[in-house]
């Protein structure tokens, strides 16, 4: 396969000749008789599919078939005059971009732009081949390139003893990444996980470092502690930002000296446990407000993995949903239902504040409701409303209002009243909900309640607007009445 070009095209001879005349070396491939038989070569980094030359159904099937074999490939689809539904389907299948203008010059620019991107990151190729194009890394499923950048970092650094800091929202799978690091390493000891937010500050040092018999009231026997239990392996400290400041100082000493001193003891005990920490909060902000030690932050932040939330990984939403659906249906010996396009559109529209964990739980609820034939947007709406999922674009029937004692701005106009224990999502959601409702009412009033005009002005589909009006309990008819009465 070494003779394959880094740019391959499945298209007409015209495109091949045009790109070649622009100095771009390409290899034109034959149209495969079966999508599974397509071979583009391990050195290929970009595939151009000619939508004028290939049937739509073939392109829709080719894209996932190619990406299954060649994970890091970019796929560019050339389809002059493509409709919005075509573009959505192709992008959802995994294409990097769709060029819907009838311009070979713009196609050339797009090819050059993608070529420049992979020229600047040639190291991805080896890792892509090593992962056998399976979309699966140590049991973690993803088709998102940012996630595979994380997987690549893990593969390259797992055997080091450097501490790792995993940063990401709740439900993004930080614990799975920590386990993947341990499995990729050569450590033969245990993987030990502890959630710092669930341990009382009074006993956390005893839990981590151990204690001697009689060290404190209730210490009836000696305890070795989690660091010693993880000796030779990995200790995963989840929600590290909730660790008490005094314990942070003790942890810093352990990381620096590679020894632990049990509570009530004067003896230092050598340990060899690699530390992985995780947080869903900003430790840099915690350092600024004094709740987290700056020296410990830098000691932990040697290798940082920033996990993107599910809303920034749209290619993973349907991919993971279908995986979870097949899994739960197999567990309960059910036939997986078909997915109507309306269901898929609504699924991808959600903001998923609970990320992958929320998606998995929702999948189970849908399957257990007994749908055996086809899932539609109405089925998804029923579950979203019933479970009152915060942050979903459909669960807005009772918009939260901002309390009078929690204004966005104080009377002098200089500061915000903010609860620092809230996540940014929790802080913003009620305010955004209120603003969105007011905005929609204003748009409806301006357009005299006309749905078409209002949807166009708001930049959303009629279906989305109808759904939001239902969620907010907004009656479009009242805006027609208002304008009628004003004209009398």
Layout of SSEs?
Layout: E1 7-10, H1 13-21, E2 27-28, E3 46-50, H2 56-69, E4 74-78, H3 84-93, E5 97-99, H4 104-119, H5 124-130, E6 136-137, E7 140-141, H6 145-157, E8 164-167, H7 174-184, E9 191-195, H8 204-209, H9 226-229, E10 234-238, H10 245-257, E11 259-260, E12 269-270, E13 274-279, H11 283-288, H12 294-300, E14 303-306, H13 314-331, E15 338-339, H14 341-349, H15 355-368, E16 374-375, H16 377-387, H17 424-446, H18 451-458, H19 462-472, H20 477-486
Parallel strand pairs: 1-2, 1-3, 3-4, 4-5, 8-13, 8-14, 9-10, 10-13, 15-16
Antiparallel strand pairs: 6-7, 11-12
Helix pairs in contact: 2-3, 6-7, 13-15, 14-16, 17-18, 18-19
* Residue share in β-strands: 5-15%
How large is the count of helical segments?
20
Q: What is the residue-averaged pLDDT?
A: 79
Side-by-side strand order of the widest sheet: 2-1-3-4-5
Poorly predicted ranges: 120-126, 128-133, 389-415
Radius of gyration: 27 Å
Between the first and last Cα atoms, what is the distance in angstroms? 78 Å
The tally of beta strands, per DSSP, is: 16
CATH class membership of the largest domain: Alpha Beta
CATH architecture of the largest domain: 3-Layer(aba) Sandwich
Shape: globular
Query: Biggest β-sheet: count, sense, barrel?
Result: 5 strands, parallel
CATH superfamily (homologous) name of the largest domain: P-loop containing nucleotide triphosphate hydrolases
